[in-house]
Design a protein that fits this description.
Layout lengths: L4 H57 L8 H25 L4 H8 L1 H10 L7 H13 L8 H25 L4 H20 L9 H26 L4 H8 L2 H11 L7 H20 L23
Helix pairs in contact: 1-2, 1-7, 1-8, 1-9, 1-10, 2-6, 2-7, 3-6, 3-10, 3-11, 4-6, 4-11, 5-11, 9-11, 10-11
């Protein structure tokens, strides 16, 4: 028996709301994280989120109950390394540049993967993205924070690696199981970067805030994305996720009072358009593992 068009529309509408709620949680978590930088520093905030996320996702995923092949285990470990990288580099970026600009530059990572993996028209969207980068960075002005931009681009490179390693891990294991391995690795990598000095700056209030941040990013978004992928096609889901830089601008404006310059707004619009165009014209076809619900093993969007 097939579902009626009305049921299908309702299901797609619910999935779209879940995807939008996921992106909003991500950006709210990042905005709140900016407020903690003065207490823990950007690396410390990244470490706190990753440490709590590791505890929560290990408890949920129980990776010890899942058999990982050698390739899946290696991909999950590498996924953890780039997860730590994207989290730390992004926090270093938003200490220096607006949230919307940092998010748009970071989005170049998965956009680059979509362009490279795409065929034909998908690759032309790289030119639109390049024009967007010019608007975001405004190299013709002296006001550009070059270090902040470099940190955001480093986060983009790590996010590209995150997409690729998630695809590898997701081809052989469910998303939640892979995260049960990758997130502790990310927390360990962040611990090595931050060092033991961070422990002296922690108190119960900061720890509770960190727990809430870990729920906002990545636990709740990942859960919402898994549910959304059961109601949306991969193309529709990917298109919606391209709107995240725009949501970052709104959150940055309303919570952090960051007013984007006109050129930056144009740049964000171009990056979003390039993401939508590349996603719609260059979908990757993947084989979903047996027993894994559609979307659970193929999404790379549990943003750290």
């Amino acid at each position: 028996m097939t579902s009626s068009p009305r049921v299908a529309r309702n299901s797609a509408g619910a999935g779209s709301l879940m995807a939008l709620a996921s992106m909003t949680c991500v950006q709210l978590g990042l905005a709140v994280s900016v407020g903690l930088i003065g207490v823990l520093g950007p690396e410390g905030v990244a470490w706190l989120r990753l440490a709590w996320a590791a505890v929560i996702l290990v408890a949920i995923g129980r990776p010890w109950r899942v058999h990982f092949g050698r390739a899946a285990l290696l991909a999950s470990v590498m996924l953890g390394v780039v997860t730590g990288g994207v989290t730390i580099f992004f926090m270093l970026a938003v200490e220096r540049i607006p949230l919307g600009t940092a998010s748009a530059l970071e989005f170049l990572g998965p956009l680059s993967v979509a362009v490279v993996q795409g065929r034909g028209a998908a690759r032309w969207w790289a030119l639109v993205a390049a024009a967007g980068v010019l608007g975001l960075t405004e190299p013709w002005t002296a006001a550009t924070d070059l270090v902040g931009i470099l940190f955001a681009l480093a986060a983009a490179a790590c996010w590209a690696g995150y997409v690729l390693f998630t695809q590898k891990a997701g081809d052989t294991a469910s998303g939640i199981s892979a995260l049960g391995i990758s997130m502790p690795v990310a927390a360990i990598a962040a611990t090595l970067v931050v060092g033991p000095s961070i422990l002296g700056r922690l108190d119960w209030q900061v720890l509770l805030i960190g727990f809430g941040l870990a729920l906002l990013l990545p636990v709740i978004p990942f859960s919402l994305e898994m549910l959304a992928l059961r109601k949306l096609t991969t193309a529709a889901f990917g298109t919606l996720m391209c709107l995240e830089p725009a949501i970052a601008v709104l959150i940055g404006f309303t919570i952090l009072h960051q007013v984007p310059r006109p050129a930056a707004l144009v740049g964000i619009v171009l990056v979003v358009a390039a993401g939508i165009g590349a996603t719609r014209t260059g979908q990757r076809r993947v084989a979903v593992p047996a027993g894994v619900p559609v979307g659970e093993g193929t999404t790379a969007d549990a943003r750290p």
